[in-house]
Design goal:
With 343 residues, the chain is of the alpha+beta class. The chain is 41% helix and 11% strand. It has a five-stranded antiparallel beta sheet with strand order 1-2-3-5-4, covered by helices on one side. The longest helix has 25 residues, at 289-313.
């Protein structure tokens, strides 16, 4: 049995799928995707079709992290809704099969854009894809959580209170050195949590363009990927996550839009994207958006710190990339403080 996040025990997977997946026929080949820092993800190829397998990484894991069972559940629940997701086939929670839990879903044969600049695309495509991204986000936040069986998918109470507490704990659990600006941000963010406004929706938790697959010949979204951080919470966390990504530097590292003449590239301003989203959801606007943006920078710092800790412990899916990412923790914390102060 393999205990590596880089490889799969093909014999074990083949035997399991032969017994549990209707219509499955080997032989099987597997190739690891370079993306998917958190839960190692593999393309499974058989003579007749392709699937995707996502597994928990091996090693000692933080409590509640890498919850592939939750990823499977939420996508299964959204099947047939207005939120596009890949078809779920099976969930295996028996660690004895390949060394950790995993699930198998359809492979979505479409386009994936690594960043919102969408290099090589024309302005009409950029405009259409970002508008589709906006539409899908609004649809996600309008899902009737009771009707799809997800009302218990997250605990009751103030989402931001819960999340700031959770990520502060996870950050402390994976802390590798003192970062004073992160300490300040955690303290100030906890003190600035807005009062409840009655919005309790499904949230993705990592909503950005590179976690989406689009049709090859149109701007239609075929599926949102990477649901590991999804829960029932506050929709503005997802909206602010998009804006946070756009404020990052352009190129492979930041994958953002900082300094880009957006109008010249067919891309909306932050304000335009937020206004379109509000229009779709029938909202008058959003007060104190700086808090939500600050929260997203804080959470990203926490996520990146966790990735760094796994690299140091020898459990990272992509160790070199993990150590590179780890250097961004203070920068995310500084951006979070700046957003909070701007309000």
């Amino acid at each position: 049995m393999s205990n590596s996040s880089q490889t799969l025990d093909l014999k074990a997977v083949d035997a399991y799928l032969s017994d549990h997946l209707p219509g499955y026929e080997g032989p099987l080949d597997a190739k690891k995707f370079a993306v998917g820092q958190s839960n190692p993800t593999f393309l499974l190829t058989t003579p007749s079709r392709k699937y995707v397998l996502r597994r928990k990484p091996p090693g000692v894991l933080l409590k509640s992290a890498h919850a592939v069972d939750r990823e499977y559940r939420v996508q299964k629940a959204l099947q047939g809704s207005k939120v596009p997701v890949a078809k779920m086939h099976l969930l295996c929670e028996d660690d004895a099969v390949i060394g950790s839990s995993f699930y198998v879903m359809d492979f979505l044969d479409g386009r994936n854009f690594s960043d919102p600049m969408m290099e090589g695309e024309n302005n009409a495509t950029r405009t259409a894809v970002i508008d589709e991204m906006n539409r899908v986000l609004a649809e996600l936040h309008m899902v009737d959580i009771d009707a799809v069986g997800l009302s218990d998918y997250g605990p009751p109470g103030n989402y931001f209170e819960r999340q700031v507490g959770r990520w502060s704990k996870q950050y402390r659990a994976s802390e590798t050195e003192k970062v004073p600006v992160m300490d300040t941000l955690m303290e100030k963010l906890a003190a600035a949590i807005p009062a409840e406004d009655g919005q309790r929706t499904l949230v993705h938790g990592d909503y950005r363009i590179d976690n989406m697959i689009f049709a090859r010949d149109s701007a239609d979204c075929l599926g949102i990927l990477d649901w590991e951080l999804s829960t029932i919470g506050h929709p503005y966390a997802d909206l602010a996550a998009v804006i946070m990504q756009w404020q990052m530097p352009t190129g492979g590292e930041g994958r953002g839009l900082a300094g880009v003449d957006r109008a010249a590239h067919g891309l909306p301003t932050d304000e335009e994207f937020i206004a379109t989203y509000c229009q779709r959801r029938g909202l008058p606007g959003i007060d104190n958006f700086g808090f939500y943006l600050s929260f997203c920078f804080f959470r990203m710092a926490g996520i990146v710190q966790g990735v760094l800790k796994r690299a140091i412990d020898g459990n990272a899916s992509n160790p070199e990339r993990a150590i590179q990412l780890g250097r961004y923790v203070p920068m995310f914390a500084e951006r979070g403080l700046a957003a909070l102060e701007q309000g």
